[in-house]
From TrEMBL:
Pfam families: Trm112p. InterPro entries: Trm112-like. It comes from Kribbella turkmenica. One of its GO terms (cellular component) is cytosol. This is UPF0434 protein E1218_28045. Belongs to the UPF0434 family.
Length: 65
């Protein structure tokens, strides 16, 4: 399911933690922070970005075996 956000909205959204721009991950339904040091992934639910740091997934976390 692809992320369906207005391009104008996407152009003004920034990461609440570091203020960097986002890239869209359609496969995971997330907005990913483009700052490599932050790199949080924020969920998009029902075409609404959930920009709460507590709801974000850390993409830098080591995978669990």
């Amino acid at each position: 399911m692809a992320v369906n956000l207005d391009p104008d909205l996407l152009s003004i959204l920034v990461c609440p933690k570091c203020r960097s721009e986002f890239r869209v991950d359609d496969e995971a339904n997330e907005l990913i922070c483009t700052n490599g040091a932050c790199a949080l992934a924020y969920p998009v639910r029902d075409d609404i970005p959930v920009l709460l740091i507590d709801e974000a997934r850390d993409t830098k976390a080591a995978p669990v075996d």
